[in-house]
Write a structure and sequence with these properties.
Strand content: 5-15%
Radius of gyration: 32 Å
Structural class: alpha/beta
Number of domains: 3
Distance between the termini: 100 Å
Number of strands: 6
Length: 288
Amino acid sequence: MGEAAGNVFGSLDGMSPGFFETVGIPLLAGRLPTWSDNEQSRQVAVVSESLAKALAPDGDVLERRVRYGTLEGHQDAVIVGVVGNATMGNPRITAPPVLYRPGMQWGRTVRYSTILLATNGDAPTVAASVRQVLRDAGREYAHEIISLDDLFARAPSTERMSATLAGAVGGLAVLLALIGVHGTLAYSVSRRTREIGVRVAIGAAPGAVARTVLREAFLVTAAGVLIGLPAALATARMLRTLLFGISEADPITFAGAALFFVALGLAAGIVPARRAARVDPVVALRAE
């Protein structure tokens, strides 16, 4: 029966013939369970690639015996196949170690079954047909029918709630930053009214005056971005466990955020820049 494997932790999942083909998990070595793998035949199992490498460094675990769980009976099984890694409902864990057992060999330990269907047709129509077939059987009924996309959409519900809250706080911070930059530039323009009036009186074009204010807005915002990027990177590393499908140091995200804040700073400087460009030198000098 082969050499016994080491002790490792992994998930246990029951399946029927056709499961791997339906969900698109490839066979890497050995064979897949068939309908002949029942309670009267040799107890067999299929392992994921990650579990195979945990059991043996070279991943060669075919015909090795495994003992799983604490339930008496049907605990011993021989590994007859190795399949590719697959996310088992949690998008953050892409290669969980899984031991797959044929449902026909579990007997009464299998109480609730899940039917997986792969179809190119309209999902709601297929779901209604499946529900009707189960109803016509007389004893079974479908507790819930859900598409794979909806299933994975439910998985990060906690993270989505956290992201929504963080997004709301971030939006408030952006609004406060916009108000702050605008207020700072407006105050600066009001303090420099005489200076601006003198520059306009000696020939400075209104457009040049406006560009000067916008340049200040850009420098203030750029300085804030340069200070904030390292802090944002450090914070993102602390939140890496909440992320999946994206790196905590994703360059596109950070570049997009930097450009957004620079554009925000320039937008905050538009009104003060226009006010500076409209300063009447005579009125400004008389005010002093």
